[in-house]
């Protein structure tokens, strides 16, 4: 008879992923051991293996869930009502909502993707491509003329994503502006340029 899963099985797996993300982001995936992760979880290695078969499986799940959340947020913005600019602002806010609470997971996505085997790495990259394509779609909705300049689609898109993808390094929740204000600021600078900003940080 198969062993019955505990009611909090999913919650415990999420806790493992959170602890692992903190450990991998601080020490690097390659330099982190299952023993160290077990200690961080206040558990034994055998307890960890009940939830995940390997350290690699933990790394994969951290990345998969993080990028899937970004995909979901991007699709939500695309499907929302409003003008293309309103959708774009919503997308930026959605991404920032994730980034301010998932800095460790984003570090791992940027630094440790190469530690996955080829098939799993390709899956993660495919999910990332979905995120980028969603942003491209919104940018083209705002500026249809750009459709003729396909060589610029990705550079323009990555220029915007670069403004928010690295916020985990410096952004603080208790800073002078909150996550939604920064998302709006990034959109305003991207669409209208720095010189259009007024004293309140937004277009005057």
List keywords for this structure.
Tetracycline Repressor, domain 2; 10 helices; mainly alpha; 204 residues; 68% helix; 0% strand
Q: Which SSEs are present, and which pair or pack?
A:
Elements: H1 9-27, H2 34-40, H3 45-51, H4 55-79, H5 84-99, H6 103-111, H7 118-142, H8 153-165, H9 167-170, H10 179-192
Question: Could you give me the name of the CATH homologous superfamily of the domain at 60-196?
Answer: Tetracycline Repressor, domain 2
Ends: how far apart? Answer: 68 Å
The total beta strand count reads 0
H/E element order: HHHHHHHHHH
Main pleated sheet: none
Radius of gyration using CA atoms only: 20 Å
Class computed from helices, strands and strand pairing: mainly alpha
Give your account of this protein's structure.
With 204 residues, this protein is mostly helical. It is built from ten helices and no strands. It has helices at residues 9-27, 34-40, 45-51, 55-79, 84-99, 103-111, 118-142, 153-165, 167-170, 179-192. The protein has a domain at 60-196: Orthogonal Bundle (Tetracycline Repressor, domain 2), CATH 1.10.357.10. It is elongated. Helix 1 packs across helix 4 and helix 7 crosses helix 8. The chain starts with 8 loop residues before the first helix and ends in a 12-residue tail after the last helix.
Summarize the structure.
This protein has 204 residues and is mainly α. Helices cover 68% and strands 0% of the residues. The radius of gyration is 20 Å and the shape is elongated.
